[in-house]
Amino acid sequence: LSTMRTRTLVFYITAGFGITLTLTVWLGLIANERLQEIRTHASRINQEALPGIYLSGRVEAIAHETGMLVLKNLLSVNEEQRAEFAKRIGENIEELTKRMKEYERTVHGDKAMEHFHQRHETTAEYAAIIGTLLKLSGEGKTQEAMELNVTKLDAAFEKLTKVAREEVAVGKANSDKAAQGILTSVSGAET
Fold it and tell me: Which CA distances in Å does 130 have to 57, 71, 87, 164?
């Protein structure tokens, strides 16, 4: 009788330990799966949305500064100042091109790529108008350059700003979607 009880007791302890171990492994696998989902969503925020939003804002700021420099260039009567403004404008255009290449690496998805191509086109249009303005200014055709500034550059800047804001909205939507995925993964892990 004592041997039978001991065997039964050993069986129950072993079975309980086996069930506990199985449940622990199962819960560990589920937790690992949830952590991987969280990592994936966090990566989308850190590697795509946030850098894209930052670079989009940076491109807009550079474009704005460049527009102001163009206006200063057109209004300046000092050739030395004009040359300095033209140099800074050229540096800004190079910076704009560099930032656009950086920004392209953060673009994922069809809608975001569509916005990127619009931004690229509007940035190229903006830079081309600035090139024409500087050429006219350098040739002493200030009045023509001022007219081009009002008729074309302002519109190109507005278009560039509009596209940038749309891109930021897409980036924010992607961040929100990823954040919702994190919340879902965390909620799933809690239950």
Answer: 20, 10, 12, 19
The residue count for the chain: 191
- Those residues with Cβ within 8 angstroms of residue 72's Cβ, 6 or more apart along the chain or in another chain: 81, 85
Q: What pTM was computed for the model?
A: 0.69
Tell me: the pLDDT tens digits for 46-101? 777 777 778 878 888 898 899 999 989 988 888 899 899 999 999 999 998 888 88
Q: Could you give the CA distance from residue 147 to residue 150 in angstroms, rounded to a whole number? A: 5
Rounded distance, CA 17 to CA 97, Å?
64
Calculate the dihedral angle through the C-alpha atoms of 169, 170, 171, 177, rounding to the nearest 10 degrees: 110
Tell me which amino acid residue 43 is.
S
Among the listed residues 30, 145, 179, the one whose alpha carbon sits nearest the alpha carbon of residue 76: 145
Type of residue numbered 176: D
